[in-house]
Write a structure and sequence with these properties.
Length: 333
């Protein structure tokens, strides 16, 4: 069945393998499924919930757009744009912040993680971040939202907001509660240095992640240094329990090859990690290096990237502006 897809990625630099395997790879597959309507957004309004350097932010917006294109997103098939060009996102977010409840936001684990110990010093924007995300999605009546596992809770909040708005104003089905699309396997790519931590752009150690712009040598080196354990690779999935680093490397390999973990275990069961690592590096270089080359090429033409985003924003604006107009009418403005 045709789906209306919306998703977003923050332009905060260092897009990595977790972003690619957890989210962007799925964006491309959905775009290429027949009849889907896909909208992919560089969520720059979300990025400023943490302090950003203006020059770097501008570069990162272009770099995220370049990554979309280099991964296979096609501006003739999908709408690609950046959020701050479409005013309806801010406007819709204000309206929905009057629907969302403090108690709901207080439960958000991402806020707790990002705010750290001193919550009093966190920006109000960081706190209401999931409301803006709900506006992003529901302005386009998106039915499905491909995201990594970490965004599940935000999607649940979005559904709660839809329900409350529709109830409060007695407008059944006006806001569409979206379904998350989370990959069943390998939805969470872990740090190469610590299998209990997510691969993240904010990790201080660059060795913890494969960045999509990493050179071949860097990829080989990072995989060589990736943490493992002293046992050989098992033959069955059950024996991966309590071996998070082994599970992660095997998961990354399987995901890159689009194969089930059992197939990978058949390939490597009983062998030692050096063999897996050699093959994993080859797979990564095969997939990541052409992308890195394309990203760097696109970044040499910022005017082209800006034009793609601006064209996309015009299309997005037509849809989102209209939805906000309807919202205002319902509210009584
Ligand atoms: P962000 O960079 O936080 O805007 O994330 C962009 C997308 O990548 C979101 O859908 C995240 O859920 C996903 N993502 C980020 N880190 C990981 C990871 N380590 N594993 C899987 N997905 C991830
Ligand atoms: N919060 C998402 C993340 O950190 C990014 C995002 C913003 C998003 N708006 C969205 C994802 C709408 C999906 C749909 O990854």
């Amino acid at each position: 069945m045709a789906k209306k897809i919306f998703s977003g990625v923050q332009p905060t630099g260092n897009l990595h393998l977790g972003n690619y395997l957890g989210a962007i790879k799925n964006f491309v597959e959905l775009q290429n499924e027949k009849d889907n309507n896909c909208i992919y957004c560089v969520v720059d309004l979300h990025a400023i919930t943490l302090k950003q350097d203006p020059k770097e932010l501008k570069n990162n917006i272009r770099e995220t757009a370049a990554t979309f294109l280099a991964s296979g997103l096609n501006p003739n098939k999908s709408i690609l744009f950046n959020q701050s060009l479409v005013p309806a996102h801010s406007e819709g977010s204000w309206i929905l912040s009057c629907i969302g409840r403090m108690g709901w936001l207080n439960r958000m684990t991402q806020f707790k993680e990002k705010a750290g110990k001193d919550k009093e010093k966190a920006s109000v924007g960081l706190y209401i971040y999931p409301i803006l995300m709900a506006a992003d999605i529901m302005l386009y009546d998106a039915t499905h939202v491909p995201v990594g596992d970490d965004q599940k809770q935000h999607l649940e909040l979005c559904r709660d907001i839809a329900q409350k708005f529709n109830n409060d104003y007695n407008v059944e089905d006006f806001l569409v509660p979206p379904e998350p699309l989370i990959q069943k396997q390998f939805s969470r790519i872990m740090s190469l240095k610590d299998g209990s931590k997510k691969m993240s752009k904010s990790d201080v150690s660059d060795l913890s992640r494969i960045n999509l712009k990493d050179s071949k040598d860097l990829i080989i080196n990072k995989i060589k240094k990736a943490k493992t354990d002293p046992h050989p690779i098992p033959n069955i999935v059950e024996e991966l329990e309590n071996r998070p680093e082994a599970e992660n490397l095997l998961g990354i390999y399987s995901s890159l090859k689009n194969q089930n973990i059992n197939t990978t275990l058949k390939e490597f069961g009983g062998k030692n990690f050096s063999e897996l690592k050699t093959n994993l590096s080859e797979q990564l270089i095969d997939k990541i290096s052409p992308m890195a080359k394309e990203i760097n090429k696109l970044l040499n033409d910022p005017a082209y990237l800006d034009k793609i985003l601006l064209d996309g924003a015009e299309k997005a604006n037509d849809i989102a502006e209209n939805k906000v107009k309807e919202m205002k009418k319902i509210i009584g403005f």
